[in-house]
Amino acid sequence: VQLQASGGGLVQPGGSLRLSCAASRSLTSFGVMGWYRQVPGEQRELVASIRANGTPYYADSVKGRFIISRDIAKKTVYLQMNSLNPEDTAVYHCNAKINAFAEYWGQGTLVTVSS
Question: By CB count within 10 A, which of 12, 14, 23, 63 is most buried?
Answer without folding.
Answer: 23
